[in-house]
Design goal:
The protein is of the alpha+beta class and about 170 residues long. The chain is built from 3 helices and 9 strands; from the N terminus they run ββαβββαββββα. The strands form 2 sheets. It has a 5-stranded mixed sheet. A 4-stranded mixed sheet has the order 1-2-3-4, with no helix packed on it. Strand 1 and strand 2 form a beta hairpin.
Amino acid sequence: MLDLAGGTTVYLACGATDLRKSYHGLAAIIKLKFKLDPYSRCMFAFCNRRRTSIIMLDLAGGTTVYLACGATDLRKSYHGLAAIIKLKFKLDPYSRCMFAFCNRRRTSIKILQWDGSGFWILMKRLDKDSFHWPDTPDELQKVTLKEMHWLCDGLSLTPKGAFEERHPKIVV
Protein backbone atom coordinates (compact mmCIF):
# COMPACT_ATOMS: atom_id res chain seq x y z
CA MET A 1 0.00 0.00 0.00
CA LEU A 2 1.25 3.49 -0.94
CA ASP A 3 -0.17 6.87 0.04
CA LEU A 4 0.17 9.45 -2.74
CA ALA A 5 -0.02 13.21 -2.35
CA GLY A 6 -3.64 14.28 -2.33
CA GLY A 7 -4.75 11.37 -0.17
CA THR A 8 -4.97 8.70 -2.89
CA THR A 9 -4.15 5.22 -1.62
CA VAL A 10 -2.62 2.75 -4.08
CA TYR A 11 -2.72 -0.98 -3.40
CA LEU A 12 -0.05 -3.04 -5.16
CA ALA A 13 -1.16 -6.63 -5.79
CA CYS A 14 1.95 -8.76 -5.27
CA GLY A 15 2.30 -11.83 -7.46
CA ALA A 16 1.03 -12.49 -10.97
CA THR A 17 -2.41 -11.47 -12.25
CA ASP A 18 -3.98 -12.35 -15.60
CA LEU A 19 -4.27 -8.85 -17.10
CA ARG A 20 -6.66 -10.13 -19.79
CA LYS A 21 -9.41 -10.10 -17.17
CA SER A 22 -12.30 -7.68 -17.56
CA TYR A 23 -13.13 -4.96 -15.03
CA HIS A 24 -15.51 -7.31 -13.31
CA GLY A 25 -12.79 -9.98 -13.09
CA LEU A 26 -10.30 -7.56 -11.52
CA ALA A 27 -13.00 -6.20 -9.21
CA ALA A 28 -13.75 -9.76 -8.08
CA ILE A 29 -10.06 -10.32 -7.28
CA ILE A 30 -9.99 -7.11 -5.23
CA LYS A 31 -13.14 -8.07 -3.32
CA LEU A 32 -12.64 -11.82 -2.84
CA LYS A 33 -8.88 -12.21 -2.59
CA PHE A 34 -7.92 -8.96 -0.86
CA LYS A 35 -11.21 -8.27 0.99
CA LEU A 36 -11.28 -4.64 -0.20
CA ASP A 37 -14.01 -2.55 -1.80
CA PRO A 38 -13.17 -2.31 -5.54
CA TYR A 39 -15.39 0.77 -5.86
CA SER A 40 -13.59 2.82 -3.21
CA ARG A 41 -11.60 5.90 -4.21
CA CYS A 42 -8.36 3.87 -4.16
CA MET A 43 -6.14 2.79 -7.04
CA PHE A 44 -5.15 -0.83 -7.51
CA ALA A 45 -2.05 -1.97 -9.41
CA PHE A 46 -1.66 -5.45 -10.89
CA CYS A 47 1.33 -7.04 -12.62
CA ASN A 48 1.39 -9.98 -15.05
CA ARG A 49 3.37 -13.23 -14.57
CA ARG A 50 6.44 -12.07 -16.52
CA ARG A 51 6.36 -8.69 -14.76
CA THR A 52 6.33 -6.89 -18.13
CA SER A 53 2.94 -5.21 -17.74
CA ILE A 54 1.24 -3.40 -14.92
CA ILE A 55 -2.13 -1.65 -14.77
CA MET A 56 -1.92 1.97 -13.58
CA LEU A 57 -1.21 5.40 -15.07
CA ASP A 58 0.80 8.52 -14.29
CA LEU A 59 -1.42 11.63 -14.26
CA ALA A 60 1.16 14.40 -14.03
CA GLY A 61 -0.23 17.93 -13.99
CA GLY A 62 1.79 19.22 -16.96
CA THR A 63 0.87 16.35 -19.27
CA THR A 64 -0.43 17.14 -22.77
CA VAL A 65 -3.69 15.31 -23.46
CA TYR A 66 -5.09 14.51 -26.91
CA LEU A 67 -8.67 13.28 -27.48
CA ALA A 68 -9.34 11.06 -30.47
CA CYS A 69 -12.75 12.52 -31.28
CA GLY A 70 -15.50 10.23 -32.48
CA ALA A 71 -15.60 6.49 -31.79
CA THR A 72 -12.67 4.07 -31.49
CA ASP A 73 -12.75 0.28 -31.24
CA LEU A 74 -11.56 -0.14 -27.64
CA ARG A 75 -10.81 -3.83 -28.14
CA LYS A 76 -7.49 -2.51 -29.43
CA SER A 77 -4.62 -2.75 -26.98
CA TYR A 78 -1.27 -0.95 -26.71
CA HIS A 79 0.00 -1.59 -30.23
CA GLY A 80 -3.34 -0.99 -31.97
CA LEU A 81 -3.87 2.36 -30.25
CA ALA A 82 -0.23 3.36 -30.86
CA ALA A 83 -0.74 2.57 -34.56
CA ILE A 84 -3.80 4.87 -34.66
CA ILE A 85 -1.76 7.66 -33.07
CA LYS A 86 1.13 7.22 -35.51
CA LEU A 87 -0.68 6.40 -38.78
CA LYS A 88 -3.99 8.28 -38.49
CA PHE A 89 -2.98 11.34 -36.45
CA LYS A 90 0.73 11.53 -37.44
CA LEU A 91 1.89 11.95 -33.84
CA ASP A 92 4.56 10.11 -31.87
CA PRO A 93 2.93 7.56 -29.52
CA TYR A 94 6.26 7.39 -27.63
CA SER A 95 6.01 11.02 -26.53
CA ARG A 96 5.02 11.63 -22.91
CA CYS A 97 1.53 12.76 -24.01
CA MET A 98 -1.71 11.10 -22.99
CA PHE A 99 -3.97 9.89 -25.82
CA ALA A 100 -7.63 9.32 -24.92
CA PHE A 101 -10.12 7.23 -26.90
CA CYS A 102 -13.86 6.58 -26.45
CA ASN A 103 -16.11 3.76 -27.68
CA ARG A 104 -19.15 4.12 -29.95
CA ARG A 105 -21.70 4.03 -27.10
CA ARG A 106 -19.66 6.60 -25.12
CA THR A 107 -19.59 4.36 -22.05
CA SER A 108 -15.83 3.63 -21.99
CA ILE A 109 -12.66 5.72 -22.20
CA LYS A 110 -9.19 4.26 -22.72
CA ILE A 111 -6.07 6.41 -22.17
CA LEU A 112 -2.63 5.45 -23.49
CA GLN A 113 0.64 7.01 -22.29
CA TRP A 114 4.34 6.17 -22.80
CA ASP A 115 6.48 6.71 -19.67
CA GLY A 116 9.92 6.21 -21.23
CA SER A 117 10.14 2.46 -20.68
CA GLY A 118 6.67 1.17 -21.51
CA PHE A 119 3.02 2.00 -22.19
CA TRP A 120 0.50 2.71 -19.44
CA ILE A 121 -3.15 2.14 -20.09
CA LEU A 122 -6.08 3.44 -18.03
CA MET A 123 -9.69 2.62 -18.79
CA LYS A 124 -12.94 3.83 -17.29
CA ARG A 125 -16.28 2.15 -17.99
CA LEU A 126 -19.60 3.60 -16.89
CA ASP A 127 -22.34 1.36 -15.55
CA LYS A 128 -24.97 3.87 -16.66
CA ASP A 129 -25.04 7.23 -18.46
CA SER A 130 -22.46 8.22 -21.07
CA PHE A 131 -19.49 10.53 -21.54
CA HIS A 132 -19.88 13.89 -23.30
CA TRP A 133 -17.27 12.98 -25.94
CA PRO A 134 -16.63 15.22 -28.99
CA ASP A 135 -18.44 13.83 -32.07
CA THR A 136 -16.21 14.98 -34.93
CA PRO A 137 -14.67 11.79 -36.37
CA ASP A 138 -11.04 11.66 -37.54
CA GLU A 139 -10.13 14.71 -35.47
CA LEU A 140 -7.60 14.98 -32.67
CA GLN A 141 -8.34 17.63 -30.04
CA LYS A 142 -5.76 18.92 -27.58
CA VAL A 143 -7.24 19.48 -24.10
CA THR A 144 -5.93 20.26 -20.65
CA LEU A 145 -5.71 17.66 -17.92
CA LYS A 146 -8.47 19.57 -16.10
CA GLU A 147 -10.75 19.16 -19.14
CA MET A 148 -9.93 15.45 -19.27
CA HIS A 149 -10.99 15.17 -15.61
CA TRP A 150 -14.23 16.98 -16.51
CA LEU A 151 -14.96 14.42 -19.22
CA CYS A 152 -14.19 11.53 -16.86
CA ASP A 153 -16.52 13.06 -14.25
CA GLY A 154 -19.42 13.24 -16.75
CA LEU A 155 -19.14 16.92 -17.68
CA SER A 156 -18.68 18.39 -21.14
CA LEU A 157 -15.54 20.15 -22.30
CA THR A 158 -17.29 23.47 -21.69
CA PRO A 159 -19.28 22.96 -18.47
CA LYS A 160 -21.77 25.70 -17.66
CA GLY A 161 -20.57 27.94 -14.87
CA ALA A 162 -16.88 27.00 -15.16
CA PHE A 163 -14.36 29.82 -15.13
CA GLU A 164 -12.45 30.36 -18.35
CA GLU A 165 -8.72 29.94 -18.06
CA ARG A 166 -6.96 33.29 -18.53
CA HIS A 167 -3.35 34.29 -18.94
CA PRO A 168 -2.96 37.98 -18.00
CA LYS A 169 -0.21 39.87 -19.83
CA ILE A 170 0.39 42.51 -17.14
CA VAL A 171 1.71 41.85 -13.65
CA VAL A 172 1.06 44.65 -11.17
